[in-house]
Each structure stands twice: as structure tokens, then as C-alpha cells.
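Researcher: Let's walk through a ligand-bound prediction step by step. First, I give you the protein sequence. Second, the SMILES string for S-adenosylmethionine. Third, you return the three-dimensional complex as C-alpha cells. Ready?
Model: Ready.
Researcher: Here are steps one and two:
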Amino acid sequence: MSQRCARRCQVRSLGRVEARRARRRTSLVASSERGDDGANQARQELEDELLSDGTGVSMLFPRQVRRFLAGSGAVGCALGIASTAAAAPQSTGNMVENLTINGLGFAACAFWFLQESNEERAREVAEMRREKIQRQIDRGERVEFTTETGSRASKWKQVDDEWILRRLERWGKQDMLPSIGPVKGRLLQSLVREHNPSLVVEVGTFLGYSALTIAQALSEGSRVVTIDNDLRFVLAAKRFCWQANQGTRADGQPRVGRRVSIWYGDAEAHLKEMRERYNGVPQIEMLFIDGDIRQYEQYLVAAEPMMKRGCIVIADNTKVFGHVPEIQSYLQYVRESSRYASSTELLTKYEWRDDVDDAFEVSVFGGL
Ligand SMILES: C[S@@+](CC[C@H](N)C(=O)[O-])C[C@H]1O[C@@H](n2cnc3c(N)ncnc32)[C@H](O)[C@@H]1O
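Model: Step three, the predicted complex:
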């Protein structure tokens, strides 16, 4: 390339960089005038460019061009090595010199190519991290603050019961998990607050969402015992309840994870054993049934000797599974047995589905 041509190319590429910067400046002004998010992004790009520890070359040539140059340089040198080696038998000299130059050229270009690729990857990773942090801020899991040097930063919010419940809701909605979800959760909490039970027993812990929801609505000193026969769920729920018991709630509410006791095993067997554990003295003031829908009646009959008169029995999914014979039998039992003072269908929505009706059957125990 002649000197004049090289100079013209340099000027042209400088002109392009300037033009790009000018366009960015214009868009920065335009977007800040509009006051939209574009201003933040343009400012971020300018800051990134200024903070980047790139060289003059990196300012003149975009990364794709640099990678292309490095890659084609490496390929050229590799071809040079191959052709020198192929010509070796008839070579009249210069072979060692050619191999050395091409070898060094190949190593330098390959190193440059790898470095450019790594930097690009690092930039992508940093961008992905920034987006992830922004999503965490949007979800309320992180809080933003200003550091001593005046720059903006963010940190995780303290993990507490609210944090855990929001996280379980997000997973629940995403994977359609069988937790009761926020709509039924609020209904359940209003029933707990209305009746203020000292002891709630829940059949079917799963990940502990409903147990923590109940615990939030209990008054100090009251507790919820929740039973599940799947060890994986019991361990996961124990972990979430432990996490929910960490930190200090900003709103001054007490920690609620410790109000939850998780029992592993078959609910019917545990409920029968409770009679010996408490010397046959009824303790349960609220029973929430959310286990296997074919066994609701068995759970209830097993719990009855331990239920106090006036105990509130709440059975989940009685509308959505209203066609299942065992649920029909359960409803007939609580609605017709003299052991129950009343039984009402409380309409709600199926978990994660605003378009599907469901119900809690709420019954008041009148005694054996
Ligand atoms: C619908 S999930 C419970 C959801 C939970 N109440 C919530 O809202 O987060 C049903 C749970 O009942 C448990 N289960 C089923 N049969 C059981 C039994 N006989 N004894 C105890 N747990 C049982 C299952 O392992 C499952 O975790």
C-alpha cells in the first residue's frame, strides 16, 4: 500500500469514527430531550468507550475488522509455512528464514485473534451481568445505592420471608408448580387472621409456600406444623423456612420462618400419632388440607380427635377437582356429617390461572 493510500484510508476511517461519535452525541441530545431510556443507553455506551483501556488501533478499527485482520494474518502465515514446507525438497535457500518469519507471524496473529475474541466475550458477559442485575433490581431483589465516591451501585436485599415468597411465586408461575400462589395465599391469610389459631396443621408442605404464608398471618407465639411424605420437598422447605428466618424485616415485622415446623412422613400416620404425643388433648385450631386429593377424607378423620371444637378446616382445590369421586365424598362428609357445624364453598382461582375457577371448602368442626 502506498503512503498516500494508507494516509487516505486512515483519514477516511478517522472520519467514520468522528461521524459515528457525532451521531451518538446527536442521539444523546435527542434522547435526553425526549427524556427516554435511550439517553441512558447512549451515555452508557460513551462511558464504556472512554473507560475501555483500548489502544489507538482499537479506536480506529471496530472489533470485527480487527478480528478479521488478525484471523486472515494467521491464515496467511499458516499458508506461508505450508508452502515453504511443500517447496522444501527443491528449495535453494531462505527456507529457515521463511519458516521463522511465518511462524512468528502466525503466533502473533493467532494471539491477537484470541485476545480480540476473549475481549468480545468478556464484554458480552459484562453486558449480560448488567442486564441480570437490572432485572433483579426491577423485581425488587436488589437495592440501588450511591457509594462514598458518588457512583451508583447495587446490592442484594436482605433475604427474609417476603423475599422467599416472591421468589417461590416467580418459580411457581414459571414452572406451574402446585403451590397455592398469591391469590389463594391472600385468602388463606385472611382466614388465619380472622380466626387467629394457636396451632395450624397443614397436610402437604411442598416447598413451604403456603406454610410461610400462613406463618406470616399468625400472631406471635402461634405456629404451623406442616407434613409432607416426600423427603426432597421436606428438605427444600426446611431450607426456605431457614432462609425466611434470616435478616431483619425493614417494616419491623418479626421473622416468621421459626413459626413453621416441618414433619416428614405420611400425614395420616402423623395425625394419628399426634394423639399420643399430646396425650389425646385436642390441639388443632385450623387444618389446611392440600395433600393427595384422593385422601382428603382420611386426613380429616385422622385429625378429628386432635381438633378443638370450632376448628376451621380448609380443603384446597375442591372445585377444580370437584369431579373426582374422593373429593365428592369429602364434600358430602363435611356438608352432611353432624360433626360439622357448617361447611361453605369459598370461591377463588386455580393457582397461576386467573381464568380457572377453584374453591376452598371451609368447614367448622363441631366436635365428635
Ligand atoms: C399441592 S402440593 C402442596 C402445596 C403446598 N400446600 C403449597 O401451597 O405450597 C401437595 C403435597 O402433598 C404431599 N403429599 C401427598 N400425599 C401425602 C401424604 N399422604 N402425606 C403427606 N404429604 C403428602 C406431596 O408430596 C406434595 O408435596
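Researcher: And what stands out?
Model: Residues 95-138 form the longest helix (44 residues). The pocket of S-adenosylmethionine is lined by residues 178-180, 203-207, 209-210, 227-230, 233, 266-267, 290-292, 295 (CB under 6 Å).
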